[in-house]
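Protein in question kept underneath.
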Amino acid sequence: MMKPHFTFGTKAETLASLTSQLVLSKLLSQYYFSVQLWRDKPELIMQNIVDRFGDKPLAIRSSAVGEDDESNTMAGAYDSILNVDAGKTLDLNNAIEKVISSYPGNPLDQVLVQPMIEKVALSGVVMTHDIETGAPYYVISYDDETGRTDTITSGQGISKTVLIYREYEPVLIESARVRTILNAVHELERICGSIPLDIEFALTPDGEIYIFQVRRIALHKTWHPVTERRTSRKLTFIENFIRQRSTRRNNLFGERTLLGVMTDWNPAEMLGATARPLAISLYRHLVTQHIWRKARQQMGYRVLPAAELMVIIDHHPYIDVRCSFNSFLPESLDDVISEKLINAWLNRLDLHPEYHDKVEFEIAHTCFEIDFENSFTKRFPGLLSQEEFQQYQAALLGLTNQLLDTSEQGNLQQSLVKVNSLALLQQARLKTDLDNVVDPLQRAGELLDECQQMGTLPFACLARHGFIAEALLRSLVSAGALSSQRVESLKHSIHTITSDLVSDFQQATQDSQSLMAFMKRYGHLRPGTYDITSLRYDECRDMFNAQTSTTEKKQSKTEFEFTRDEQQRIDKLFEENALALTAEKLHLYITLAVKGRELGKFVFTRNLSDALHCMTRWGEENGLSREDVSYLDWQEINASSLSPILDYQDRHFLDLAGTAEKSLRSALPLRLGYLLRDARDVYIIPLSRYEPNFVTTKSVTGETVQLDAKSSASQSLFNKIVCIRNADPGFDWIFTKGICGLITQYGGANSHMAIRCAEFGIPAAIGCGEQTFNRMVNANEVLLNCNNRTLLPLHHD
């Protein structure tokens, strides 16, 4: 016999229809009534409530007629009042009236009364498909910390999310609580039919699951009909790709690999989670194809085979972690030891995926640090024999001492020389020269080639020195030689190119001559460094409009000196650990490394930005907009100068751009984790394992404002906490606006924005992840307490 079709009604009516059908989950007892009945017989209803529930704490919930309609949803539009004392007549009456007053006035709207659950271990909401795209994921958003039942639906409090592919293998579900939730959801799907569902639930400490609400997802009629099928097909290929990528590789240590969006050269920070072909291809050309390993080879790390660092999975850029980890090995290290280290590093990251954006400080030892032996033993007990450990320690110490050389022969100064040489070449060129070149495509290629050898190659070295400097400072704090506050003061004293930008910006607001000088020096910057659709500063007409406030001008030189006690402690530690440093030399090294890294970035991005300008001109000459060019691969564009298009060139490239745009759109429903270890992270995707990198020890409360690459630079940001998804240094203009804090979705502990905030003493949470970032953006006000390492929304829309 065919099963009867399930009929949805109001919230209360739907729950009543489910009462006799549920086995794997429970429903709370309930009583509901219409607004009309309340107006006619309030005393009777009050008495019925008391007779049914006694003096139990109650939830007075909305159940309006149009709240859960098939084609529309008013989720969250009406009030629900929790923990109402049924024994207090006035409180109960007021709660009912408050729910009714939130309705539009239909007398058939209902009020639902239920007892409160006494103890809640976990509460949340399950969507049986991705609500925006219809992709085939169970989306479980939950709170397992507050003990409340309304934090997810109200948008307040703790929220964690895990996405689970609808056709998952049960063996992949490691959490008993998640298994309980999914079993209950499967039962509801069998009862309600094939329509996508929005389910509100709670789990008690003894494992019982209660269903509070079941509604249809109204947006399902807007989903593309092939999204579910297309996404499902892709996941199988992605699993196979990861499995293949994880097989043994010639001349690379490690039995397998992992893929991460924020490990090492963190493409998510610079490109975003899903990037356009031009940006990806330029990043590959300038960094991840071979420059990254050449730089580390120059510094004394292991010589690697021609392995590329970045892979692209359906427009999602990932770093091959095995390649990255191999590049952190000293060149002189024994193969047996190297193999043990790489496997141990990969295993530790597998067990601690929350360290995916902190591998240089929590996983691998990329330089020798104070108390290295204890640090290594704590992370990897029993991994190496005493003899093997001594060999590794000697190799790492020798490499580190070599890199700490600040003389003209050292890698640090040699890298700075290359950067300064490129800067001199750039000063001899004007932007107008780019507008007059006969062949803008050829000029773009020349600029990028020059950028590789004199820009990103030395910058890659300088960036590594920056990490070494940070590691040494952290180890001194751990050893008790310095306090976190003193490290903060040291960083604040370092005057980088961004300090110059803020000072020059303020001057440029005063007179036209200073404005011209500002644009000549900083005009190449753009908020999306690799994004051709992002306008340069010198293309933004509103750059200096509505200037009402700016960041307090930093003194040209903020002095920092180690105290005598600090100097003695540091010198003693360096001597005991055989590091070729003193406190004075450390100060010099840190200053050169931090300033050099920021200067290197600033200089090489001019070549990149000028190349993008030339590509824009090339596009205009061939009937292509910036948007069109952004969907083209650099290699495809450049190849046309060697192998001419024997057809209408605009038609050829518009076809390529159209195909790429369609491909990118179809990639957006695909949800992938920030760290791909194996099939677990293809089909089970946690979104909550980000720990922000807090900068400074300050605390601030402020209103949030979200910016992207196309945001106007004229808006007032004074005393605002700015939220940007990518910690791109092209957003330097925000430091001229008097911001009080910064929050980014992506970004590492030593990212450019982390350094900038340390320099200006601006509290920041760098790399907080998608889940937390969206909560902060949706909050009217946020508490950012870097000292206590907390980031909390205070008020919501």
